Amino acid sequence: MPKWLRRIRGAIGMGLIWAVAWAPIGLLIGEIVDPDGSMDEPWMLVGTLPGFIGGVIFSVVLGIAARSRKFDQLSISRFGAWGAVAGLLVGMLPFVLGSANPALPPWLPFVVTGSITGMSAVSAAGSLALARMAKKRALPASEDLAEVVGHGKSGAERLR
Q1: How many helices (H) and strands (E) in the chain?
Q2: What is the CA radius of gyration of the chain?
Q3: Going by C-beta distance under 8 Å and a sequence separation of 6 or more, which residues neighbour residue 102?
């Protein structure tokens, strides 16, 4: 598979993971804003749509910022900062693309942008933590297989 196609697949995958993680947030917002269900809004989309877009944009930001570094070489705080950059871009998007509505409260862009920025930072840090956990649980390489079955030196013995 070509490298560019793998990157697109990875960005879409990251977007889908973030969308699933953000879906409950949209439902929670719906319960707060519309507790009696009188509004005919798909509240789950309020969470999933910015989550998907944020995950895709984060993948682009990560591809530019991290380039050829491996997950072991990246810190969770740096991942969170890159997620915050992606969240800032996603949070500002509706206010930059949309028309100015004088009926909107002036604080709304700050609340929306701030909350999406925070969620993106947490999601990015969580993505790195999950990637590291998955790597630890991955099958061992062939040279480590002897350790697993008990026919080789342990890690402590190798350090001596």
Answers
A1: 6, 0
A2: 21
A3: none
* CB-based contact 83:121 (threshold 8 Å): yes
- Whether 37 has a pLDDT exceeding 80, the answer reads no
The predicted structure's pLDDT at residue 141: 54
Which runs of consecutive H residues, i.e. helices, occur in 67-107?
76-97
The pTM (predicted TM-score) of the whole model is 0.76
Pairs from 69-78 (Cβ < 8 Å, separation ≥ 24): 71/128, 71/131, 71/132, 71/135, 72/132, 74/128, 76/125, 76/128, 76/129, 77/125
Q: For 135-153, what is each residue's pLDDT tens digit?
A: 777 655 555 434 544 445 5
Class of residue 106 by CB neighbours under 10 A (exposed 0-12, middle 13-18, buried 19+): exposed
The backbone region for 2, taken as left when phi is positive above 0, alpha when psi lies in -120 to 50, beta otherwise, is beta
Quote the CA–CA distance of 76 and 85 in Å, as a whole number: 14
Q: Do the Cβ atoms of 127 and 21 come closer than 8 Å?
A: no
Q: What is the reported pLDDT for 20?
A: 94
The one-letter amino acid code at 144 reads D
